[in-house]
Design a protein that fits this description.
This protein is an alpha+beta fold. Helix content is 46%, strand content 18%. It contains nine helices and eight strands. Helix 2 packs across helix 3 and helix 4 runs antiparallel to helix 9. 36% of the residues are buried.
């Protein structure tokens, strides 16, 4: 592909990523001021590479971003697009910091975004660094979505000698039972957080909503923070399911 072609396809991916609904060929042509024939070729390239799906009505929908595995039932980009506005509403309502987090193939926690509240004292975090899953609320919630076999493998291979596998397993079991994780004594001194799952149509945990803040403030408002976080996860799960059904991706439960 020529330099100009590569630039165009990147522009197209970025534009599609900004859209929450499927778009027609005409909409793409008008938005990006591209020739119709070139635009159709670019879209077909993205469809063949499984970044975009062409729906029955002829419209196109971005289903994953570069760097996401093609076999994934729902890519990180899709999760972020459907969940970010919900997270923003949650952050505005409870005035604490919000994140969307996922579990990488090597069982590390990766934060896809960070939304800070409009208040002077707030919790911030470098989201470029991945976290050890069992050290943070997001990770414990994500681990609760693993099968028993995969969780045993994680405890065997990823837990250091200073950690207690039994205690980690108990916290994961509690997360499965309660549907959220409240971590008042995290790895960052003075910080606390609550995490709740985002599920795909088959009920699998594909990401989590995490709300964090100063420990004392989170502890004093734990019920409200937990309720808001769980509700955000529920709404994001519903939005993700609608998006996946629209794109024709209806995975079966394992």
């Amino acid at each position: 592909m020529s330099g100009r072609g590569a630039e165009r396809i990147l522009d197209l991916v970025e534009w599609l990523a900004s859209r929450s609904e499927a778009v027609s060929l005409v909409e793409v042509v008008q938005a990006l001021s591209l020739p119709k024939s070139s635009t159709l070729l670019l879209l077909r390239t993205l469809v063949e590479a499984r970044y975009v799906t062409r729906q029955a009505d002829g419209r196109y929908l971005l289903i994953r971003l570069p760097g996401e595995p093609s076999e994934a039932n729902s890519g990180w980009g899709t999760i972020l697009r459907v969940a970010e506005s919900i997270l923003r509403e949650t952050v505005a309502a409870i005035e604490e910091t919000g994140f969307i987090a996922v579990l990488t193939d090597d069982r590390q926690v990766r934060y896809l975004n960070k939304i800070l509240p409009m208040r002077e004292i707030r919790y911030d975090r470098d989201i470029a660094t991945q976290r050890v899953a069992h050290y943070v609320a997001s990770g414990l919630m994500l681990l609760s979505g693993l099968t028993d076999e995969d969780l045993e493998a994680y405890l065997r291979l990823s837990v250091s000698e200073e950690d207690d596998p039994g205690a980690i397993s108990a916290r994961v079991s509690a997360a499965r039972r309660e549907g959220y994780v409240a971590n008042l004594y995290g790895r960052v001194e003075g910080a606390a957080g609550v995490a709740a799952p985002i599920r795909d149509p088959a009920g699998r945990i594909v990401a989590v909503v995490n709300v964090s803040g100063p420990r004392e403030r989170i502890a004093n408002n734990l019920g409200r923070v937990t309720e808001a976080t769980v509700e955000a996860g529920r709404r994001a799960s519903e939005a993700l399911s609608r998006r996946m059904f629209k794109s024709g991706k209806t995975p079966a439960r394992n």
